[in-house]
Amino acid sequence: MGHYFVSPTLRYRYFYKLMRKIEYHTLSNGIRIVHNRVTTSKIVHCGIMLDIGSRDESHENQGIAHFWEHMAFKGTRKRKAFHIINRLDVLGGELNAFTDKEKILFYASLRETYFEKAVDLLTDITFDSVFPDNQIDRERKVILEEMAMYLDDPEDSLHDEFDRVVFGDHPLGMNILGTQTTVQSFRKKDFRKFIREHLDTKKIIFSSVGNMDLKVVVQLAEKYMGHIPKITSTRTRKKFKGYKPKEVTIRKNVQQARCALGRPAYSIKDDKRSAFYMLVNILGGNGMNSRLNWALREKHGFVYSIGANYYPFSDTGLFMISFGTEPSQLNKSLELIHLEMSKLKTRLLGVRQMNAAKEQLLGHLATAEKNNMNFMIMMARQLLDHGRIYAFDEIHEKIKNTEAVTLAGLANEIFDESRFSYLRMEPN
After folding, report:
1. Which residue in 67, 107, 382, 409 has a CA-CA distance of 20 to 30 Å to 45?
2. Alpha carbon 386 to chain centroid distance?
3. How far is CA 138 from CA 130, 192, 408, in A?
């Protein structure tokens, strides 16, 4: 029997059409529901995403969004901390949360039989936390330990320190965990004030992926979230402007020298972002065949790992390259990095190179979106950031239609060495 090849992206487009029927509903208070019914899994993933993050803080209360995320599990009007933690654990489910620069997500994964319990619990911890004083004091210690652990990890601290180098005193440059001083200062009134000032029901998404009909999802959302009053916030995010390149060197108790370099890049709403993702993936993506991995690791043995990343935000973005190496090889590594960026500015990729780059990026996207948890989070993010969810076919066409001259143009725009900032972390 003969065999024939079907590209991974074509297989995924077929899978997407079978699996990804996305449906919407808006409650009277403005909270939006987005649901994807999948019939091939007995596990449901669901979450409440808020368009609030660490960039919505001030220098006086930095870290409060992340602290709030922790405190949501520490007591509500009808549940104590033990009952919150135990509610889904005893069913083999998972309850968790995260905070980033622009979002907070409370989410759960469990068998579809217990979907209602997840909706009930997520609503409770999101909207009805009571912030018990004894729990604030206890969790304060936990966060300070988390902060100490993070500071002991050169890779984690390098990233956050580089945010400060690029964004300076702007809230995007602040550490999500806050500072020891601010974390020590928070009281119940501070959490309530922050929530009161920033919560907006039009900027809240309940997202779910599982084998439930939309009617069931809406019915439960109405039951547990319908009573929440319509809330409007007048707060606006401070836009980032006035970037100035900097070079900073810090001394730490590390064996390797570590370095981050980069600059602001395109915002999440910029039409150039899809092509720029491709360019960054070619330069230093996760694949072993990236230009930077090949030049610095495979060819010269200067690094164990090196990566280029692009993080888009609502009004700006961050392009960043990071790596670790022996101190004596730091400058040579930087020379090779700039050489690889220069090649992408001056040499157009050939047809075969472009096709390979497109297939690789589409494969990464397909793999990520096939994960139902990732898809639940992606739906919520896109609905908050764009007011809609992009179908894989749309993304596919954008990437397929990207031309080599476009990538070279983006490389010349962003890979401008005179606009780069540098952070070097060197041994004491």
Report:
1. 67
2. 15
3. 15, 18, 53
Would you state the pLDDT for residue 23? 97
Are 357 and 282 spatial neighbours (Cβ–Cβ below 8 Å)?
A: yes
Residue 99's region, left for phi above 0, alpha for psi from -120 to 50, else beta, is beta
DSSP string covering 194-231, please? HHHHH--GGGEEEEEEES--HHHHHHHHHHHHTTSPP-
Asked if residue 142 belongs to a domain, the reply is: yes
Strand order in the sheet with 421-427: 247-252, 421-427, 257-265, 317-325, 306-312
Instruction: Tell whether pTM > 0.85.
Output: yes
Give residue 18's pLDDT: 43
Q: Does pLDDT of 14 surpass 70?
A: no
- Does 162 map to a domain? yes
CA–CA gap between residue 337 and residue 313 (Å, rounded): 25
Gyration radius (Cα) of the chain, Å? 23
Domain of 282?
Answer: 247-427
Q: CATH no. for residue 279? A: 3.30.830.10
